[in-house]
Write a structure and sequence with these properties.
alpha+beta; 2 domains; 7-stranded antiparallel β-sheet; 37% helix
Length: 372
């Protein structure tokens, strides 16, 4: 009678020795994920630090292809001071490559301002020009814009501005229509374009109107004509001496929340579709594991779908890679790594099952299959 041999379960060392190549494949597949994860974490760290605005207020969105409701950043009327000039910043859009905000800047004079200008100008050698100065508090270059005083003199009362308690798009339209001085100006911003679609841009500048020999009180107004960004600005009240000097203009620009949610949902659709197809196939009874060629075909189709999605979702003016690019790359690497690990694990499980069923077979005479 043949001796009965006792089979001991293989230990961890035996498993590692028998599957060393496949374990290396697992580790390499997981290692590929480290690069996009590191880039994503670095992107989040670099895009932190947006300025917290004091007394922040959101500007009204533009309607009917025109300006939204304006907001007064400063108004001398808050301290019973007369308003001489209205300086309106019309936000027109952002050039993300710089980044730079494009503004239409309007200077309007009120009836009080025209009287002050007429009576305060020196009789001898009166100045011909005034200056709009935009000085950055963030280390960026200052902007000095001269304008002719003749544009502000001898105006009919119907053309004079009324920028007290500006709060409607109709008043913004009036300021725009009757503006005596119109300037188109780009102003550099601090921002994080690589954080798209969570990118933000901010400006912290001082604005002043200088006319030699004349003291004028200025109201600073801001409004938006861009539908792609949500703009929030700091609203200040003037000090006890009015604001016949420097006004601070601080605002942040972000993309609307609905746009951010929409972008992530559309970007995730190819990955969700692929995972859902394989999950439905695996969860049915009896479960059927997909063949390797099916997995490869599904991943290939997902990678091909990313290219047109990227061109639709990410503006070409943004630098690469953006946060959405990194998410695309992370999803692609995850699918490839998960499929490789899954197929290798199935192979190991299949070999173990086949070995267990074939190792205890009997010979033709009913005795064990081993030789004496």
């Amino acid at each position: 009678m043949a001796a009965k041999t006792e089979q001991r379960p293989a230990g961890l060392g035996h498993f590692l020795k028998g599957h060393a190549g496949r374990i290396i494949i697992w580790l390499v597949s997981l290692g590929f994920l480290a690069v996009p994860v590191w880039l994503l974490a670095d992107n989040y760290v670099d895009s932190a630090g947006v300025e917290t605005l004091p007394y922040a207020a959101s500007l009204g969105a533009p309607r009917y292809n025109y300006f939204g409701s304006p907001a007064e950043v400063y108004s001398p009327a808050d301290n019973s001071q007369p308003i001489d000039l209205c300086v309106t910043f019309e936000f027109l859009g952002v050039d993300e490559t710089s980044p730079q905000a494009n503004f239409g800047i309007l200077i309007d004079i009120t009836s009080t301002g025209e009287w002050d200008l007429e009576h305060q100008l020196p009789q001898k050698h009166p100045p011909k020009r005034g200056t709009l100065l935009i000085a950055s508090n963030s280390g960026l270059s200052s902007i000095s814009i001269p304008f002719s005083l003749s544009q502000l003199e001898n105006l009919p009362p119907s053309d004079m501005a009324n920028c007290d308690n500006v709060n409607s798009s109709q008043q913004a339209s009036r300021l725009d229509y009757f503006a005596e001085v119109r300037i188109r100006q780009g102003i550099f911003l601090l921002g994080t374009p690589r954080a798209f679609p969570n990118d933000w841009y901010e400006l912290n500048d001082d604005v002043s109107v200088s006319i030699p020999g004349v003291t004028l009180y200025t109201a600073l107004v801001i409004t938006s004509r861009d539908e792609d960004y949500a703009l929030a600005a700091s609203m200040y009240t003037t000090g006890g001496t009015g604001n016949a000097g420097v006004d601070a203009l601080e605002f942040t620009i972000r993309r609307p929340l609905l746009f951010i949610i929409y972008t992530y949902i559309v970007a995730a659709t190819p990955f969700v579709l692929l995972i859902a197809v394989f999950a439905i196939k695996y969860c049915r009874k009896p479960p059927k594991l997909p063949e390797p060629y099916e997995v490869a075909f599904g991943i290939g189709a997902t990678l091909v779908a990313i290219l047109p999605l990227r061109s639709v979702l990410i503006p070409s003016s943004l630098p690469s890679p953006t946060r959405l690019d990194i998410y695309f790359g992370l999803g692609a690497v995850f699918l490839v790594a998960a499929s490789v690990i899954w197929m290798v694990s199935i192979r190991i499980h299949t070999e173990a099952t086949d070995g267990g069923t074939s190792g205890g077979g009997k010979g033709a005479d009913g005795t064990g299959g081993g030789t004496g």
